[in-house]
Amino acid sequence: MTTSTDSTAKKDIQKLQRAIVDGLEDVKAQDIQVFNTEALSPLFERVIVASGTSNRQTKALAGSVRDAVREAGFNKPRTEGEENGEWIIVDCGQAVVHVMQPAIRQYYRLEEIWGATPVRLKLGAPKPEVEAKPAAKKAAAKKAAAKKAAPVATTPAKAAAQAAKAQKAEKAAPAKSGAKAPAKSAAKPAAKTSAAKPAAKTPAKKTAPVKVVKVGTPVAGLPKAGARKTTAAPARKKPAKG
């Protein structure tokens, strides 16, 4: 008896779910999502969230759902929020429909509350993805970054070779940094001293003024041109008288 009642109840909820989705699709609802809430609440088994772009469309969506549920043979649903139109709740008994405008839906994020087990709307459709919580997203991002940073070793031999390379690189790094540091420190003082001391200026040698002499002018101490040198003859000695 329990199996038969469970199967009929399951068929009823599937029929109700199909009627609600059809009513939403007739008025072109956006981003329709269905969530199974059997394990979350004893009051209802499905939560359906859909978006409407304006107050007029949200009211039309709520009315279409109400009519589709009644035509499927279920009791008349109760509605709340039709006066405002930003967020309308249609209580269909085993399923609760939330018709919301995009800004309201993004603010309240009902998917994070009821979206533990999403339901596929059509057979063969890909399974809907559940939005991960911020902490889970951060953990996944850290794992991905660690996988990219760490080298992948397929064999133990490769892993040992990679470890040896890493150790060599660590040893070589301090030696290189120590060798470069003295050279830089030695070069800097030399550059400072050379820049600080001005170059010694050598005194310029004074050159004597050059006298310009015209051609043909007599120069003191030199004979005139064309003059003959005369030498005085030595005086003859007179013989002594006896």
Molecular structure report:
The protein is α+β, with helices and mostly antiparallel strands. The protein contains six helices and six strands, in the order H-E-E-H-E-E-E-H-H-E-H-H.
What key phrases describe this protein's structure?
46% helix, alpha+beta, six-stranded mixed β-sheet, 242 residues
Low-confidence stretches: 123-128, 150-154, 179-196
Q: Rg from C-alpha positions?
A: 55 Å
Supply the helix-strand structural class.
Answer: alpha+beta
Distance between the termini: 201 Å
Helix content, binned percent: 40-55%
How would you sum up the major sheet?
Answer: 6 strands, mixed
How much beta, percentage-wise?
5-15%
Average predicted confidence as pLDDT: 73
Counted by DSSP, the helix tally is 6
* Count of extended strands: 6
How do the strands of the widest beta sheet line up side by side?
3-4-5-2-1-6
Spell the H/E element sequence. Answer: HEEHEEEHHEHH
Shape descriptor: elongated
